[in-house]
Structures are given as C-alpha cells and as structure tokens.
Amino acid sequence: MLEYRTEGFNGCAVKYSPFFDSRIAVAASSNFGLVGNGRFYILNLTPQGILPQQSYTTQDALYDVAWSEIHENQALVASGDGSIKLFDIAVNEFPVQGWKEHSREVFSVHWNLVAKDRFSSTMMGHEYAIRKVSWSPHLSHVLLSASYDMTCRVWTDGSEGTPPGDADLTRSGPTSTIGRELGRMGRHTEFVTGIDWCLFGSEGWCASCGWDERLCVWDARAIMA
C-alpha cells in the first residue's frame, strides 16, 4: 500500500486523473472543514512512492474536486467561500479562474461526462444543503443531486436542443440556462450524502446512501416527469 500524508489538512475528496493513471488530485481542509484554510494537492504515483507535484493553499476549506474532461492539466475545486475555482497545474500559484455564484459553502462539483464543454445553469429546489451532484453518463442534460433535506432529485440543466457551449472555461462562457427539477426520490429518512450513476446497462439506474444507514438502488426514469 502507498501512503501520502496531507499534514495539517484533512482530506475531503480524491480523484484520479482521466488522462493519467499515475496522477491524483486531493481537496483538503484544516480543522475538518469547519474553519480555516484549504489545500489542493496534485500527487504522482511513482516507483519511489507518492510524490507531490504541486499544491495550492486557499483561504477557505475545499470540499470536492473534479478533473477537467477536456484539458489534462485543469481541475475544479469546491470551496467553503461559495466559489468554484479552476486550477491549471502548469500555473504555480493561483487559480486561473473563479466563479462565485453560491451564497454558502460549495460541497460538490462534477464535470459533465457527455457534453464536456457545457458550463453554466441554475437550478433551485432543495430545502437544505446539497451534499453531492453527479451528471448522468448517458444523458448530457440530466444530473442527480443528494441533499440534507433527505431527498435525491433528478434535474435537467435546460440545454436540451441547444448547441454546445464555449469549451474554454477561462473565458466568460456561454449564457446561463435555467434548469428544472424532473423528479425526486424521498425514501431516505436522514441526510443523503452519496449518489452515483451506473455506467452499464439501462441509462437510469443509480445508487444513493445516507445517514439512515441505507443504500438504495433505483431507476431515475421512474420518477422523471
């Protein structure tokens, strides 16, 4: 087993690069994300063990990370200051772009796996904080969310039938679209903290887990209006 210590920072998320099997990104926070700084690590798996390639310290906690699906050196992080930051690991010091659209902590960030250049949309609906989001690997406009309001919800980002957006996220990006809720699953009785889509077989199957000690496997198509 290989091991690397993120000394002084508690790990919150880890993702393998979709381009390099030896590169890993880690989002971490001091004091378990309750207060203090964050740190974003780029780590390499080598014959000598796990070696740091780059790290960035941020003014607020970091809760999630997502590698770009269109640029091998870029990754997004979700920050406690309400922002999403885009880092380019070829740039040593600062994020190359930031977006602050949220009014509270950003807990989750995920890159669309189908329409990889689609950027911005707004969806309102959950009563409490959203813990995880996940784009469908089959339908480019559909994503799934898990919330502290004990529901999982399926959304469209409102982009059905529209041309692809601007793939360069360091520029202003396309005009935002307004998404809407397609349906919700309310079988959990505590906070829902994890969700994922099945990559195989029928396109609607997904899984969710929560603080109610339950794992649910269900078909999102059954609740989509």
TrEMBL record:
GO terms, biological process: protein import into peroxisome matrix, docking
Predominant localisation class: cytoplasm
Localization in the cell: Cytoplasm, Cytosol; Peroxisome matrix
Listed Gene3D superfamilies: YVTN repeat-like/Quinoprotein amine dehydrogenase
InterPro entries, per the entry: PEX7 (IPR044536), WD40/YVTN_repeat-like_dom_sf (IPR015943), WD40_repeat_dom_sf (IPR036322), WD40_rpt (IPR001680)
Sequence ranges of the WD repeats: 123-155
Annotated SUPFAM superfamilies: WD40 repeat-like (SSF50978)
A Gene Ontology cellular-component term: cytosol
A GO term for molecular function: peroxisome matrix targeting signal-2 binding
Source species, domain of life: Eukaryota
Keywords, in A-Z order: Cytoplasm, Peroxisome, Protein transport, Transport, WD repeat
Protein name: Peroxin-7
Higher taxonomy: Eukaryota, Fungi, Dikarya, Ascomycota, Pezizomycotina
